[in-house]
């Protein structure tokens, strides 16, 4: 029984060898010799039986499971019933078949036709699946490409923003530094421009203070002069160049030398000089008064 069950499940095929001639020559065919072999091997009777009988007997469940693609959709799972087998056979448009109680009786050419139809249906399904898979793959590729392009655009925009901010900071720092240099140069120019006038005014104040304080003796004036000169000397800014400082300090030293020389003069000479200065200043007033009187007398 095991061997028989294996043969039924495996669908064995028996092969009989026929010699075309007795001389073993190629491309030679002896009709009498071949007909004799066919008669004695029983092939002619087998052919007649196959033509008249049903060589394939298949159970309903197995027939539906094998050929349900011809009449049903792929996602359907039909039962192995007589009605479903009838639907499949009618869909295939076969003739000379018989349905038993549990099996389908088919001739040899019926199986060949059913297998051919099944291969065609499977081929169409494969083509449709290939198109659908190609479409899905193209859509996935487009999405991935768009995502990659969007990510590239995002990275580029972020990099451009970073570069723009960096350049803006550099330009702003340059402008600030340039403004600071311009302001420093302008302040230095203003200070250098006003420095001579301030020096003259501070020098006059210092001379008047020294003249008023030096009324006792020359020795006291000489002792008192360095202190007052240091207190009343103008403050020189640090941003002046060396030449300006040198000239200014030369002028200051010259003025201090003249003040010291004037302090060494005697009291009588100072008094006489002050009287001459006052007479010289009052002479225009006298002339103006005389002129006014003469105008009135006239």
From TrEMBL:
EC nos: 2.7.11.1
Major subcellular site: other
InterPro entries (alphabetical): IQ_motif_EF-hand-BS (IPR000048), Kinesin_motor_dom_sf (IPR036961), Myosin-III_kinase_activity (IPR052409), Myosin_head_motor_dom-like (IPR001609), P-loop_NTPase (IPR027417)
UniProt-annotated location(s): Cell projection; Cytoplasm, Cytoskeleton
Stretches with biased composition (Low complexity): 268-277
Ranges for domain Myosin motor: 1-119
GO BP of this protein: positive regulation of filopodium assembly; regulation of actin filament length; sensory perception of sound
Region (Disordered): 206-238, 268-298
Keyword flag ATP-binding: yes
Catalytic activity: L-seryl-[protein] + ATP = O-phospho-L-seryl-[protein] + ADP + H(+); L-threonyl-[protein] + ATP = O-phospho-L-threonyl-[protein] + ADP + H(+)
GO CC aspect terms: filopodium tip; myosin complex; photoreceptor inner segment; stereocilium tip
GO MF term list: actin binding; ATP binding; microfilament motor activity; protein serine/threonine kinase activity
Enzyme kind, highest EC tier: transferase
UniProt keyword terms in alphabetical order: Actin-binding, ATP-binding, Cell projection, Cytoplasm, Cytoskeleton, Kinase, Motor protein, Myosin, Nucleotide-binding, Repeat, Serine/threonine-protein kinase, Transferase
Composition skew (Polar residues), residue ranges: 209-218
Pfam families assigned: IQ (PF00612), Myosin_head (PF00063)
Protein family according to the UniProt entry: Belongs to the TRAFAC class myosin-kinesin ATPase superfamily. Myosin family.
PANTHER family in the cross-refs: AGAP011099-PA (PTHR46256), MYOSIN-IIIB (PTHR46256:SF1)
Protein name: non-specific serine/threonine protein kinase
Organism: Meleagris gallopavo (Wild turkey)
């Amino acid at each position: 029984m095991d061997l028989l069950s294996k043969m039924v499940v495996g669908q064995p095929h028996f092969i009989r060898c026929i010699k075309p001639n007795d001389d073993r020559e190629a491309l030679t065919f002896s009709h009498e010799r071949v007909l004799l072999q066919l008669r004695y091997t029983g092939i002619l009777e087998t052919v007649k039986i196959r033509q008249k009988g049903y060589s394939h007997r298949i159970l309903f469940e197995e027939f539906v499971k094998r050929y349900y693609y011809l009449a049903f959709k792929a996602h359907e799972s039909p039962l192995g019933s007589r009605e479903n087998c009838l639907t499949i056979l009618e869909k295939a448009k076969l003739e000379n078949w018989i349905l038993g109680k549990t099996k389908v009786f088919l001739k040899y050419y019926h199986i060949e036709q059913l297998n051919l139809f099944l291969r065609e249906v499977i081929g169409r399904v494969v083509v449709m699946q290939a198109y659908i898979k190609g479409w899905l793959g193209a859509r996935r590729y487009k999405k991935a490409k768009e995502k990659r392009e969007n990510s590239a655009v995002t990275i580029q925009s972020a990099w451009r923003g970073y570069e723009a901010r960096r350049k803006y900071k550099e330009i702003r720092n340059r402008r600030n530094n340039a403004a600071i240099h311009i302001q420093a140069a302008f302040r230095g120019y203003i200070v250098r421009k006003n420095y001579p006038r301030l020096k003259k005014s501070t020098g006059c104040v210092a001379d008047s203070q020294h003249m008023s304080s030096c009324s006792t003796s020359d020795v006291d004036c000489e002792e008192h002069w360095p202190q007052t000169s240091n207190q009343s000397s103008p403050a020189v800014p640090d941003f002046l160049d060396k030449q300006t400082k040198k000239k200014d300090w030369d002028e200051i030293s010259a003025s201090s030398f003249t003040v010291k020389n004037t302090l060494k003069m005697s009291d009588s000479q100072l008094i006489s000089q002050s009287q001459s200065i006052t007479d010289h200043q009052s002479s225009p007033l006298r002339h103006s008064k005389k002129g006014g009187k003469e105008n009135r007398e006239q």
